[in-house]
Amino acid sequence: MNCKRFAFVISDFYGGGAQKVFLNTAEELRLRGHTVKILTLRERIEHEIPPKLEIVNLAVINRATKALTNVLVEKAQAHVIGKALRSFQPDVVISCSCDRITRHLQGFNLYFWVHANSIDAATDAKQRQKLIAKNRNIYLERRLIVVSEGIKQALVNHVGLKAENIQVIYNPFDQALIAEKAKEPIAAPHADYFIHVGSFEYRKRHDRLLKAYHASGSQSPLVLMGKGKPADEARLLGLIDELGLAERVTILPFQTNPYPFIAQAKALLLTSDQEGLPTVLIEALLLHTPVISVDCPSGPSEILTDELAPYLTDMNDAEALASAIRQMDDAPLGIETKHYKRFLSTTVIPQFERL
């Protein structure tokens, strides 16, 4: 294997799953002998950084640049990034969450790493058209890495990007690390339960979940792990009471380590209106916990394949979801390596090495 020089460019390490995946991927490449440098655009770190990863903050995003956002400012920021990249002389440059700026870079083997299906998540036609125009402006004639086939199809069908310019590479997962974290002792909420892990915001559709669970007639408890705004939590509690589920549904606060709870569950459920590539489904499979999901855009249909396919239900078919819960309740499905092998780091990282 020829070792390469990888440069990653990202706004910061504040926020959600994309930043975590970014760090994991960079560290995996470093561990395989590649030279890796990460360029951040501002000093904002919320995630734990692997100690041997080289990170340089270029500080090109600040109050002034945010107030004066325009193409000239973007080009000035890109000039600083380009100078740092030319000094490093990378074989591959991967941009994440700062593409409005990095689109101005020239002369590099550059890929834009897209983690979300923002177009299908649009709530109205005006917002949708605005997102389509934004994506076309940034990504037309560019090379992209996307984390699911569903995101690729949205960009091809709605934005008009060329399919040959978009490569699907799933997020890499370290099963050994997740399994080790799952060993942490916990006070399990019940002996035998279904679990949903996610924020209490509307797009996670706890209403869809609770109504299907109620219709299933399952006596196995349901655990809802997450957090939300007071209004979201009040709406959730109101629906639980309305359906008469107070004795069967338990709400747990967000856990920094949810893996022991997932590992001990009968099955994990997902009922969202929209996802990118739902990490929680894959993590459950890695822990050999079966999953049930609605077929939302995008990702679940790429995860629940073969023997898992009967547990992928139409988003608008409440009875099918209830039936899947009943079926899993009666005879939980056994999970095997073949159900998640394509998401393992050992499968995914070589695809980055071929860029």
Automatic annotation (TrEMBL):
Lineage top rank: taxon = Bacteria
> What Gene3D superfamilies does this protein map onto?
Glycogen Phosphorylase B (3.40.50.2000)
Q: Output the InterPro entries linked to this UniProt entry.
A: Glyco_trans_1, Glyco_trans_4-like_N
Record has Transferase as a keyword: yes
Give the record's keywords alphabetically: Transferase
Q: Where is the Glycosyl transferase family domain?
A: 190-328
What processes does the entry annotate via GO biological process terms? carbohydrate derivative metabolic process
One GO term in the molecular function aspect is: glycosyltransferase activity
Q: Which SUPFAM superfamilies match?
A: UDP-Glycosyltransferase/glycogen phosphorylase
Please report the stretch or stretches of sequence annotated as the Glycosyltransferase subfamily 4-like N-terminal domain: 16-174
Mind telling me what this protein is named? Answer: Glycosyltransferase
User: Which species expresses this protein natively?
Assistant: Billgrantia kenyensis
The beginning of the lineage is: Bacteria, Pseudomonadati, Pseudomonadota, Gammaproteobacteria, Oceanospirillales
